Amino acid sequence: MSAPERMDRRQALKTAFAGLAATVLAPGLMLVEFGTQAKAAATGSRWGLLIDVSRCQGDCAGCVEACSKEHGWHAEGRGGHEPQWIRVIKATDPVTGQTSTVPLMCQHCANPPCADVCPTTATFRRADGIVLVDKHLCIGCRYCVMACPFGVRFFQGDDVQNQRTNSPRGKGTAEACNMCVHRVDHGRLPACVEACAATGGAMTFGDLNDPDSAIRAALAEKAAARLRPDLALAQGVSYQSL
Amino acid sequence: MPAMTYAHLDSPTARLWPVLAVTAAVVVAGMAAFLTIDIQGHHVTGMTQRVPWGVPHVFAYFLILAASGALNVAMLASVFGRTVYKPLEPFSTLLAIALLMGGLTILVLDLGRPDRVLLTMQYRNNWSIFAWNTILYTVFLALAAAHLATLQNRRYARFSPVTGHSANVWRFVLTTGTGLDLGVLIARELYQSAIFAPLFISYALTYGLAVLLVLLPVMGWLGGNRPEPEVEQRLGRLLAIFVAVSFYLTVALYAFTLYAPAGRSLARFVWIDGGIYTALLWGGQIVLGTAIPLLLILKKQPVLAAAAVIIGGFATLYVFMIAAQVFPQSILPGHVVSSAYGDGMVAHYMARWPEWLLGFGGVAVALLVLLAGCLLFRIVPSRRSRDPRPLGAEVPP
Predict the structure, then answer these.
(1) Average pLDDT for residues A38-55, to the nearest whole number?
(2) Which of A197, B73, B322, B348 is the most buried (most CB within 10 A)?
(3) Which of A120, A123, A161, A241 is best to mutate for the B interface (most B CBs within 10 A)?
(4) What ipTM does this complex have?
(5) Domains of chain B
(6) How many angstroms away from the CA of A116 is the closest CA of chain B?
(7) Preferred mutation among B61, B126, B128 to probe A, highest tally of A CBs within 10 A
């Protein structure tokens, strides 16, 4: 009976190195695998939101509540410190006295000033027009909050409670409406649009590049305008009857 | 040009240690403020969603602008050949480095995630002025440090004209970047103007010279060699020119805002009924930061004038920084807007203690760097280095 072979030092090092490499690389390779499974942003699409303010109920906050529930933010609390991804503005024409209720959220500009000023590319625009914040790259400088002409970007200055897995947020980073990208990528409507459909049906979501989409049909029916067209930001959100 | 000799700060211990102790205590207080904000979050500050930049940014912008202007004296000596300022050249250069370090300390420590600041290098957005500024600041520090080295070591003295000219050009590039930080912001009515580049250059020249003028007697008290009174008078007259140019450009900006109908309510807010902001504009910028310094310089009190300029400068930047944010954004022009969020209303901002301590902590960092530099290196003019020639007998550039 031969004596069991002793592992020499070189072999031991080889085995240890192989083990270490497997430990380090395996999770990364798994992530690559998961990454290829995820549906990439559709490059041919341009997601847009059309809001007919004449159909928006003045006392309805369905869109706000749905967004708050979907993403876990709460407007009440410390006054000006809390993010409000979507809010409702009352706009009165001083001549006619006519008052409109205007839901306001990230306008998902084609030329987003927030992404232009972001020093780390944390704020970026997807190929399908949705403007997002990579929470791992954001350094919390708030330059994007300064740069947004619509006041719809926010800074999370507190520990995040009720974190939603679909909509990660983080203390010390910027955030804004992400057009419910986790829903859109799976063929669902944004939470605010879904909630609005149950009440006034003022919101229409769809692919602006698709001539057969509902949003294109609604746009053909009634003229729409973007906020601050003088800034030439080419927002994905537009308004009718404003 | 006679060979210059510089000395370590020869400070009486009884004066130096209390100053160092107080400065270090303020730095520690600033660190405590930073930890409070970092651990608890920015909700402990007075900054809000509508006023995301507050008092820390006022301090940071003041120090960064002053850093560029603190080089004035060094540039007069090295670039323009004014030998009367040669003894102050290392002090002027070190002051620029110290002020920039103080300003950047505040900016970095006020970030929501200061631990990620190096991502600005790793994931650069070359379209972002902010990202460009990180390069501008770093190169400025390197150029100023290189220039200081040429003044410290005779072996490198031959490079002094190169480093001097480079630093001089670079500081204008840097301050252009700092001004355009605000100038490119189309979201705020007070900004969105290219005039912020020359405006901030004029502010930089003014504040930097004022800080240097105020520190000259302080360094003299601490054992340095205070320059001849005539040198301070000359610098005072230069300060008067900078103050006047700054005021002119400020008036030009506001007059431009007033001309367009859409900007009139903003101009009215700042000039007439903006409460604290109107008071700071008139009392701080115009009276304390412009009129009184000009009068004091006429009365041959340049150091007092410089002190008034510094206080007026803070008031000026406070108005620029905060008033521009609290004034309601024009989201739906032509409509009267209101919301629970405060749309259409002037936002409220009241700085809280962590912001003030962070700001003063940055000032203390600048002072600590300056004092440490003066103690470790030969920065202050030695008593032998006074230029024996009469004033005015300078070597042309």
Answers:
(1) 84
(2) B73
(3) A120
(4) 0.91
(5) 5-329+344-382 (1.20.1630.10)
(6) 6
(7) B128
